[in-house]
Amino acid sequence: MTSLKRFVARIRNFAASRRGDERLREEMESHLAMQTAVNISSGMPPAEARRQAVLKFGAAESIRESYHAESSLPLIEAVLRDARYAVRKLWKSPCFAAVASGSLAVAIGANTTVFSVAKQILYQRLAVPNASNLRLLAWTGTSEHVAVHHVHGDYDLLPGGLATSTVFSYPAYQQLRAENRVLGDLIAFREAGMNATIGERAERVLAEMVSENYYRVLGVQPELGRAIGAADDTVSSRPVAVISDVFWDREFGRSPAVLGESIKLNDTPVVIIGVNPQGFTGAKSTIPSETPNVIVPLALQPILTPSTDGSSWLTNPAQWWVNILRSGALAMRQFNMTLLSVFAGLALLLAAIGIYGVIAYSVTQRAHEIGVRMALGAKRRDVLQPVLNQGMVLAGLGIVFGIIGALALTRLLQGYLYRVKPTDPLTLISTCALVAIVAVLASYLPARRAASVDPLQALRCE
Length: 462
Prior knowledge:
Layout: H1 2-15, H2 17-41, H3 46-57, H4 60-71, H5 74-92, H6 94-123, E1 134-136, E2 139-142, E3 150-151, E4 156-158, E5 162-165, E6 168-169, H7 170-179, E7 187-198, E8 201-210, H8 214-218, E9 224-225, E10 240-243, H9 245-252, E11 262-265, E12 268-275, E13 294-297, H10 301-304, E14 319-327, H11 331-365, H12 367-375, H13 380-413, H14 425-451, H15 455-459
Parallel strand pairs: 3-14, 8-13, 10-12
Antiparallel strand pairs: 1-14, 2-5, 4-5, 6-14, 7-8, 7-11, 7-14, 9-12, 10-13, 11-12
């Protein structure tokens, strides 16, 4: 308890350090004045009386430092003091400071974006067995000669007059699946927002229409009831649905009696036949908030999401609307992400070189000052700390601008990356910490060289 009280007192003294320093100065001056008066009364001249009083009192600066060491937070005070000094030095060399902090900003923006994408593409998997073998099929063609009439989904224009999308017509899916010899089975699915009516309550839900092999290929078994099968995915089949665990808990209180219950999707009654396991987020996303509430067979498309002309998208080759999952290898994607990671690492290396150059230049400019300080008895730590703080100030500037740059890159990359968020918070924090460590290491070498300089040689530098 005593240690805690002392720590609290130190924090309080640190917050009021200026007032405390003024009170200490007044008290010290009062002691000197009293001793000077005593010396004058004993017959000393005023100037000699003052000098003798100062000699008897001792070194005022040493007393002040001892007082602050016992009553305040000297380490924090020293860091703040050195940081202010570093800012003043960098202000005098704006070009070098801009190069170093700009390099760090580029490094943070590039590394955060690249490693966020790599984390989500290479390491975040769907909550299904063998998720690493699943790939979302996409096509790319020239925007002027694409044999696609109506796209209901993503459609992105690429440089060079190209276009790409991950949606296909249902007849195209059927043909790909029938003629597929090397990719394993193909899954078709389509996400859509629908109006759900549960009893007297109505709400908007995210639904996923899936092919009959959806659960079998993904290797997912409902925690309650059964999965959608081939008998459910025909136009003449009874409309059925499998609901998510969250939807089951929220709407039915996890009651086993939910099986056989009927709900309405877009005013169409469907019978609940199963409940998906916890953690299953569907075929399109690993984000829990994007989990489909209801999964139904694709055969229900004509009655759940009818087209304006009354035709069925299941037989219309001009309507491109389903996504397809396939088995695929990781080699090409890993190569691309490795290549991007190499470039991000080069950006970090250039940032380290930039900081080293600025700090080394600063040490050269301050050689005479460092020599004077060491000749007056400065310790090695007293020389190292200001130089390291200068590097940390640069790192701080780079981190601020790097975060702004990473957030700005989000808008640019979201047009090229399907459902990938380049500004992952954990990756952003990790990258900033990594850059701070690199900045310390890049600043340490010039700082160590400055601390080992010969004072006599440094004093000759003008």
